[in-house]
Amino acid sequence: MNPSLAHAELLATFRRAELDAAQKFGLIKAIEKKGPKAIQAAIETAAKAAKRRDSYAKKLNALGVSLKD
Q1: Which terminus of the chain faces fewer neighbouring Cβ atoms within 10 Å, N or C?
Q2: CB-based contacts of 5: which residues, under 8 Å, 6+ apart?
Q3: What is the pTM of this model?
Q4: CA 5 to chain centre
Q5: What angle do CA 29, 32, 50 make, to 5 degrees?
């Protein structure tokens, strides 16, 4: 696979993970009236999404791709 194509695919995957993490953190606010169990589940889901995002960011950084806008 072409290295620049691999970078582009990894960057696209990172962007999707970034949006997913942002959405999951937004859900915490929407769920706050449903009780502590719902809040805890939303927090755990958001943490997993953030971990995925950070993992892709680390891989991109190792490849020398800057994520700063």
Answers
A1: C
A2: none
A3: 0.70
A4: 21
A5: 50
Write out the two tokens for 53. Answer: 């995002």
Q: How many Å apart are CA 9 and CA 40, to the nearest integer?
A: 32
> Phi and psi (nearest 5°) for 66?
-85, 135
Low-confidence ranges of the chain (pLDDT < 70): 1-3, 69
CA dist 25 and 21 (Å) reads 6
The type of residue at 39 is I
DSSP summary character for residue 68: -
Residues 6+ apart with CB under 8 A from 19: none
DSSP 24-50: HHHHHHHHTTS-HHHHHHHHHHHHHHH
Report helix, strand and coil shares of the chain as percent, to nearest 5.
Answer: 80, 0, 20
